[in-house]
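Input.
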Amino acid sequence: MNDTPIQSEEDLYNRINEYRKTLRTGALTSLDVQSFIETQSTDLLPDIVLKHIILGNACGWGSYDIACEHFENHMQAFRHFQVFNM
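Output.
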């Protein structure tokens, strides 16, 4: 269990990416949300974890800045498919 508290969304994104690497997979799914949450000492909302998994998968798990840029560039598609209920 990771006892270090999560300080920011970037920190959460990086933790999920590290978790993905420990599983040795290229992408995570909604089935990984609960198992990731169980590895953290911080209380996390499943919706927020899933949002970061979707962003990470969409941008190929680049840096957090790349994920945010990808989101900004494709926000219309995220809205259209109601990925984040925006």
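Residues 11 and 64 are 9 Å apart (CA to CA).
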